Amino acid sequence: PEFVQRLTGEESVLENSSVRFECRVKGFPKPTMKWYKDEEILELDERISVESLEQGTHALVIADVTKKDEATYRCRIENNEGSSSSTIYLSVKVDRIIVVVTATAAAAAISSSDICCIDHCRSFIQRR
């Protein structure tokens, strides 16, 4: 079997977005395909699905991407004539919100030089 369209390089996406990896294969007999994440067979769930389309096109779709999805993904095709693989690296960027707070004397808990960094409902205060 062989790839007509391979996975290539690296894909960068923002956390909570979706990503789709497509490859196209050909071979006789028709090859089977397996997807791997960091060299382990990829487990499918409500967020991660595989599609088989026309003309040997196969797609891996990951919805609501999280930092845990950051990895090397590989599709491996195989038939009784042999096997072949293609890989891509998924990089997940976290969208951070940085809030600079200037406080008045009435706000005793926070001084005017405090910086608050809010990252996905976890916050911390760094004193300067």
TrEMBL record:
Keyword Transmembrane recorded: no
Protein known as: Ig-like domain-containing protein
Gene3D superfamilies documented for this protein: Immunoglobulins (2.60.40.10)
Subcellular location as annotated: Cytoplasm
Extent of the signal sequence: none
Entry annotated with the keyword Disulfide bond: yes
UniProt organism field: Octopus bimaculoides
Domain of life: Eukaryota
Family: Belongs to the protein kinase superfamily. CAMK Ser/Thr protein kinase family.
Family matches, as SMART domains: IG (SM00409), IGc2 (SM00408)
This protein's UniProt keywords: Cytoplasm, Disulfide bond, Immunoglobulin domain, Repeat
Entry GO CC: sarcomere
One Gene Ontology molecular-function label: protein kinase activity
Pfam families the record matches: I-set
SUPFAM superfamilies tied to this protein: Immunoglobulin (SSF48726)
Residue intervals of the Ig-like domain: 1-91
PROSITE patterns to which the protein is assigned, alphabetical: IG_LIKE
